[in-house]
Amino acid sequence: LDISPLKKGRDKNMIYRIYFNKKTVLQKIIDRTFTGDKMGLGAYLWVAHRISGLVLLLFFVVHLFTLSSIIDGETIFDRKMKLMDATWIKVGEVILIAVLLFHCFNGLRLILMNLFPRSNENVLAYISIIASIVFTLVVIPIIF
Amino acid sequence: MSCYLLPMGKPDRIYKIHILRFDPEKDQEPHWESYQIPHVDTMTVMEALEYLWDQGEYVAFRSNCKEFTCGSCAMLINGKPRLACDTLLKDGMKLKPLSRYFVVKDLIVDAHCVKETLSELKYWPVIKEEKHDFTITEKVRVEFDSIYTRCIECKCCLEACPASSLESKFIGPMYFLLLGRAKNHPLDEMDRVQQTFDLGVWSCMNCLECADVCPVNLNPSREIRKFHKEAIKNTLVGYFTSKKR
Of A3, A87, B90, B197, which alpha carbon lies 20 to 30 A from B144's? Predict the structure, then answer.
């Protein structure tokens, strides 16, 4: 922050400026969502993209942890693999695939937007959402 | 200030608006004040503020053209940057000054830092060797007519952009639009892709808030993506040409 105005005796004004300004991107989006006019679809897709990325990262860690049990022996590994047949795990898999597909299609949308700057942003956004929903629905009968 | 005389004989209904007021000379903290406005159809926020002046409530605000051409009446209306002259009044509206600048008084901000940034930006065509013969293609002319000459520099996009703040490297959508203008100028010889890279062009979130709030329906995000495309192209070309060597 530039603090030179503080030295010029405008400290009150400076406080006022910081009061409004020192917010992260996420805070700004949450503020607008709950206290003012809502933001556009793109901002929420940005948040969803990051959250889905973190979910995938978390899955990656869990995945490695589960597979690493093979080091402990065949029986332990088989016992863990049997757990994967539980319904709640299947539901989790569907959610995971939905998150993965959303992340993929949204990433693809961003690449297309950069390669074709004149493309219609809203159409691409809706296509990416619809595509991830449709492909998730296709995957459900395969999992169950 | 010229006051707008409203047909106050039979107002449709009474609307309440809330204004965040702050006078650095008197107040310790900004505070909300509520006002009642007799609403008539097609009444704008600016007309409501002018009505308050008529009533002796001197809420400080800027206005010039009143036809969304000068961009001086930009303020936060329900948390979204808009022009007061271009926004119809609704009940319970909350008005705040733009949040990225010092508040001079009430809804007036001191946006000199924008001018300072502009002066450092070199957004005019940079010509290394003087040329006398150049042609302007129809495509460039249409782009200047429809995009680059239309920005009124109202600072709404700077305010709405969640990616740009005091701390971030990304300077804001308006500046990239102006740099796009310089880049498309037939005489410009500066490396605008490198310049925009240094100014954090890749921090754009593609959220399209800038396009959403622009009072003249421009899309600065599209200009930013043109720079992205150029950067990708330059990188790929650089990669393949270096492989050939």
Answer: B197
